[in-house]
Design brief:
The chain is an all-alpha fold. The chain has a single domain, classed as Rossmann fold. It is built from 2 helices and no strands. The protein is globular. The chain starts with 18 loop residues before the first helix and ends in a 16-residue tail after the last helix. The relative contact order is 0.13. One of its GO terms (molecular function) is damaged DNA binding.
């Protein structure tokens, strides 16, 4: 979870993630983790800036051959 997603927007200062959306996200992540666990896998969840968290995870894991990212699409006004 990137803390920057819970600050105001760059245009009007409204929260990007309100309480209802946050609850939905948390429930969705919990459900995904439980589903993966039933199938013998797991889900790593971290809070922090992705550029820091991913670097730390790579260091912890030691042998990472590839990393893929998704960038948020931002509307230009």
């Amino acid at each position: 979870f990137d803390p920057r997603h819970y600050l105001g927007t760059h245009c009007f200062g409204f929260p990007k993630t309100g309480p209802h959306r946050l609850r939905f996200l948390l429930e969705s992540v919990k459900d995904l983790r439980e589903t993966l666990k039933k199938r013998g896998s797991t889900l790593v969840v971290r809070k922090g800036k992705p550029e820091d968290v991913v670097c730390d995870l790579i260091t912890q894991l030691g042998s990472v051959s590839a990393v893929a990212f998704h960038e948020e699409v931002r509307e230009k006004l």
